Amino acid sequence: MSEVVNVIVAFAVIVFIFRWVTSGSESNGERSPSDILGFRPKNVTQEMVTTISNMFPDVPADNIRYDLLRTGSVELTTNKLLERGFLDAPPAAYFTLYPRQQATQRPPVAVTGNTNASASTSAVKKQQASLIARYKLEERVQKGETVEEEKVGGKAVWEDSAEKREASLKERKAQMILAARQRFLAQQKEAEAKKAAEASS
């Protein structure tokens, strides 16, 4: 009888140890986004990604989303782009949480009856207006100043004094903002022309 009790107790101990080990490995497998990314991600909407993507179409959407997860602000990410000219690529662990976005999945800038499209367009306009006001570019916009895309974001020349370096950085920011505005207006004009052509046909 005592042997049967010993066998039952031993079996119960083995089952307990097995369940404890497997539950520990499962909990380790379910890592939180903070553990995977190395920081606590902010709340990011697709509209935020689209807003920056429309102003800077050459920057991959994944780079934009990754930076927004850090900053949580369209303005901070835009300023970083204007100052550095690029955004860091996300690490491989990022793609375990957010599947890689293809360039074709990026919603086009178009003036349609869709509420979401018009909302994102108005958000872009609002963001651009605030940047133009912030960097006091209203006069240059009214004059219709155009910026050559090839010269924007190139390698800066190291100036002699701090004042000249600051002025050079300020001018580079202004050119990038004006170039982004040019691209946006060109895309909007193209979308309107396409819509008018479809309506007439």
TrEMBL record:
> Which InterPro entries has this protein been placed in?
CUE
CDD domains xref list: CUE_Cue1p_like (cd14424)
A GO term for molecular function: ubiquitin binding
Pfam families according to UniProt? CUE
Residue ranges annotated for the CUE domain, each copy included: 44-86
Identify the domain of life. Answer: Eukaryota
Protein name, as recorded: CUE domain-containing protein
